[in-house]
């Protein structure tokens, strides 16, 4: 017996007659019994059924995790610094770099360990689950992980298949079972599988146990849809539905099952922010090396003076000094590196990871992205790309199920050139809308409806027997199919009086218009595939007639029917496609017994082939589906999703270019693009299709012509185009794209692909129709790899969209009716296309602003931290004396300044979410990585340098006077450093408070709490004699420092001086916005201003509405608050006028709760200056 093989000669044979055992196959002995009594059974070595999706074990977790973490450049760098501190006599304790590194490594290890523990737990739930094996005509309960290849397994209803099984028998008489593969490919619809015909009758434990057979099948491969006999193969992870029980033999187990082979991590995607961080790190690493080099050089220049050499107790002979000079210089260089290494923010990586991980929950918790129909909200599969949502430049979207509802409704049909629509008529059963109805045509109409009732894979179940499905109110049957189109066609036939009653024992039953029962024997099903784009069935009537019915796309059916039959039907197909309907053509042919015998033989031979089975099957299908007769065509409507048009308009307004990639025909897709406002009536369309381009050898010439024409229109009349708002769109089909991406070797144009790409990139909207899944990914890859590497986003709902979802920078899956494979393979999943608007314009915008501010702030505060340390070396003879205590060095990034920026990066809303969603133009302000370009980076760097200079020299000059202490003494080294550090901590924290626009209790808690914690820690650290410290250098330093009133005033003054440029900048910016607001009334992003909005009415004038582009309209201004809406399909009614929502009030410069405190502080400044002047 072969895998998935329908009846073939004696089951006991291991191989087909004339076949030899080939490489790449495996032989499975059913029940572990040899075929012949004379043969000795030798147990074959296959893997067990244990699933392992975890990465670590208890024994290898520590070394493996540490190895993976130290492969990260930053972690490895700090490890080297730590080792230098341990080995070399450095000015700071190894704890100062070791503790932060330990914290980073520990937090990451705990996170990764917890995630792996969850995987271990999930594995154990599967591996330890109970299954029933048939042994010695009895059922034996075992754990799933103990199943071996060759075991006969019994699976009951609603249970999951524990391994990949060959379907032997079921409780159903016809040997069928129903399966859902939602956990594999996300397809939630029922699929029908068939038992091997020779074993269908073995439906008891005794009968199945007596089976003696071998199975020859191919070696394990990951493709879910490619196998030898897929209709007989039940995959691990699929669930048995509406069938009491089945028997199957295990052929693939454990990590060799298709589910396990498909379990692989998606390729790591790096965001633009990560690339910016790496670039900034290189700059700061250069700064670090420069500082260490300067200090090392100046140290030896300074020591070249005999009076500045080493002290007498450390003096060495001249020979010793010369001998070890190079080594001393190298160790001094390393010591300075250690002293200044805190300029590289090690804790930034942990903060960024925590921000991404915690921030992703806000998307999942968004109630506005929750869909009541499916009872689900948004899903975040990866949190590494949150900020990338705010940088999207190109959106690639599928059409069916993404822009449309994928809820098919039969609209009309065309039979022999006559269109039939609406409901049943009393006279002839049809309501005819064009063409006369004659009696002789009735047989063709009935033949067409019989084709709709027979050419499909729909199954019928009574409503009360189908899980989770609701029956139709007019009858007690429910249709089950993996294709919504097929259900719509069967319902359409039912509307005209022909009802499909189901399939039983390979006999299909239908009830005709006269309420008579008709029975057809189903002989063969030539299944649909995306390459053929059609499917066929071969049936035998009760009178013995052999008929082949075929349905498929017009491009697939027309070349295979009589050419004289095409023209009348083609007119209707094209018109329906222009109306936005999905069209299918129906054909048939009558077979003689001799023709059928030949087809049957060829099909069985192809099914039994162990090599090149798919190619052989395709050849038989091609020969069989030829010389047919065209009967007619169908039109099925797939309505647009709610707010899909508004969403595309918003994406365009945000500066994004939207491309639609679909497998539908051009006319259907083009109509949908107009309906969803991808194309406007004013859009000038450029078409590159088989019809417009003509012969393939002229395609390059045609492309050059279109390119030249486009450039001519764009540059010669740029002013006119800008005033008129003209836009260009491109339409291309799959066949033309294939020639573009894979030009012939004798192509005369070497830059053919580049020319095409130039056309695409200059169009505001592109429609790619008749696309194969691989072509969708090629399109995304082509745009992604263009100059500038624009950020791409792909969104789709079906398995055929997975390739482009994985290819794009950001992949989004729709939780639609085509299953969940797209959402499972995506980075984010949303219930509807309309939710993309808020996901990008609001969440994406905010996430980018937050993390960009976080990155810049980390570099800024670490520069403020280290610059005084560098300047201090000029005043201590470059002796590597640290300015700050080791505890402050360790705690600065971990405790004192980490929580405020983390809270900011999670909660900040510099603009209200509703405003961001309503005004797409705000998205462009942060596009193209605007906040992480070199200009803002240099601003933050110079700001950090300025404040570092103020900290050091401000304290230095203010405390030169000995009168600052009551006893006349000057402050010591550690007091000086503590004052600098205090000003530093308060300044960088208050800087963040100035930047905060959205205050919550958590912001208050972490900002003021961090400052309070610093003061508490300083008192505590300096108020206790620590026995593990050799020197108590910080004892009572902080408390003694605060006893001086001069210190208090100096700290306040220096904080104000440091923040003054930032405060001045904010005030000037606020004044500028208030001044410019009245002068730009049309800007919807100007908050607090009255905005004059335009509304347009449709009038008989020969003009068009500038808002909706409807023809024959005239613009008229109407005062606010009003908005205009217009339907381009109805030019007889004016634009609807609706009230405009009030604009939000202008955001105050400071939160109300802080304005009084700020006023009080500012009023005290003159007093402070007066006191300082008296010094």
From TrEMBL:
The organism of origin for this protein: Calidris pygmaea (Spoon-billed sandpiper)
Residue numbers annotated as active site: 398
EC number(s) reported in the record: 7.6.2.1
Keyword Protease listed: no
SUPFAM superfamilies cross-referenced by the UniProt entry: Calcium ATPase, transduction domain A (SSF81653), Calcium ATPase, transmembrane domain M (SSF81665), HAD-like (SSF56784), Metal cation-transporting ATPase, ATP-binding domain N (SSF81660)
Chain coiled-coil ranges: 589-616
Gene Ontology process terms (BP): phospholipid translocation
Transmembrane parts of this sequence: 279-302, 333-352, 887-907, 937-959, 971-993, 1005-1028, 1048-1068
Membrane topology, record value: Multi-pass membrane protein
Positions with a binding annotation for ATP: 398-400, 486, 528, 551, 582, 662-664, 770, 776, 800-801
Gene Ontology MF: a single term: ATP binding
Binding residue positions for Mg(2+): 398, 400, 797, 801
InterPro entries recorded: ATPase_P-typ_cyto_dom_N (IPR023299), ATPase_P-typ_P_site (IPR018303), ATPase_P-typ_TM_dom_sf (IPR023298), ATPase_P-typ_transduc_dom_A_sf (IPR008250), ATPase_P-type_domA (IPR059000), HAD-like_sf (IPR036412), HAD_sf (IPR023214), P-type_ATPase_IV (IPR006539)
Superkingdom, natural source: Eukaryota
Family: Belongs to the cation transport ATPase (P-type) (TC 3.A.3) family. Type IV subfamily.
PROSITE patterns associated with the record: ATPASE_E1_E2
Cofactor(s) for this UniProt protein: Mg(2+)
Keywords: ATP-binding, Cell membrane, Coiled coil, Endoplasmic reticulum, Endosome, Lipid transport, Magnesium, Membrane, Metal-binding, Nucleotide-binding, Phosphoprotein, Translocase, Transmembrane, Transmembrane helix, Transport
Domain P-type ATPase A: 129-259
Pfam families referenced in this protein's UniProt entry, alphabetically: Cation_ATPase, E1-E2_ATPase, PhoLip_ATPase_C, PhoLip_ATPase_N
This protein's name: Phospholipid-transporting ATPase
Limits of the P-type ATPase C-terminal domain: 824-1070
